[in-house]
Amino acid sequence: MLTITSNNNNKEPKKVIWIHGRSHPSESPASWHLEGMIEQLLNNSEYSKALRENCIFYIVPFINPDGVYGGYSRSIANGVNIEINWDRPDSLTMPEVKVLKKTLENVLSKNNIDVFLNMHSQIANSVTYWIHDAKSTTPDFFRKQVLFSNLTINGNPYYKSEHQSFSAIAPRYAEGWIWNKVGEKSMALTFETPYTYYNENPTGEWVSIENLYELAKHSLYAISDYLLLNAHERVVVDNPIVSKQKLSLNNDSKIMFIGDNYIQSSKDNAKITYQTPVLKQGNYEVYKWIAGECKEISKNGENIWQKCDEINIRRDKKVKYRIKLENSGDKADALLFVRKSN
């Protein structure tokens, strides 16, 4: 297992992300995607440094190393598919799963796992997450999963809303096991790359190591945005100053909001001020999250980062940024500041 973090003296508790891959040995694109995530986590960019400062990543690239070495398709050496071995009695639980459970329990004894990702590749010619329905989990857990998926879709040429997948959560899978352990505390999903081409389009871009690395960048963006990280080059701000004017904080799980709540106005032309952490000198693009209905497939223009401004910061400083809600009933949620390359 790889542990990726920094030894900074951050007073705030670090977010914890667990990622494992290759339970099915034949799914090699998933390994290139995960390798892309690892390489980006380890580079010297300000963004990657911030991820290491604010997070602990526990990564198991190959949970079925014997199967990979042996060239099997979906099993370990004795023919068992460990992907669906998580709810078996101890006598029928494979050693690989026993080790993973023990390691996860050790991590959970110290910290919550905020994001849990199970990396795969699928026969369908598209990227997908397997999102667990509200009936088998809760409406708010469903919202968190679809939010994470939409954050991955945002600006991503390789993944579209219509290619999301949905199912009931099941204890035979790792996500079902972690759900039974901690419930809503861990946002757990299976992610799948295709083998061939993206977006069900054979005349479009085909899978390559280069674009799997690009896809990995979007996976990391989803993690940092979902966790509201101040990642230097990509800063999410979700601390609006709510005055006594007719504004209310809401957390209706039927709305796909970021963080703990969103703002709704009960009058026209309401103004909201956000306070950023220290932004480094440079040019920034500013985006606002357009919180819409929490549905399997979002309406056009909803549940996306929408660009609203460009600003220049001449010296390192905190910034107060104001937005206006033009109509009664309008919603406001998080802002995203993306530092542009020189």
From TrEMBL:
GO molecular function: metallocarboxypeptidase activity; zinc ion binding
Biological-process GO terms, alphabetical: proteolysis
Cofactor: Zn(2+)
Pfam families in the record: Peptidase_M14 (PF00246)
Domain Peptidase M14: 1-227
Cross-referenced InterPro entries: Cytosolic_carboxypeptidase (IPR050821), Peptidase_M14 (IPR000834)
Transmembrane segments: none
PANTHER family to which the protein is assigned, alphabetical: CYTOSOLIC CARBOXYPEPTIDASE, CYTOSOLIC CARBOXYPEPTIDASE 1
Protein name: Peptidase M14 domain-containing protein
Organism of origin: bioreactor metagenome
Organism lineage string: unclassified sequences, metagenomes, ecological metagenomes
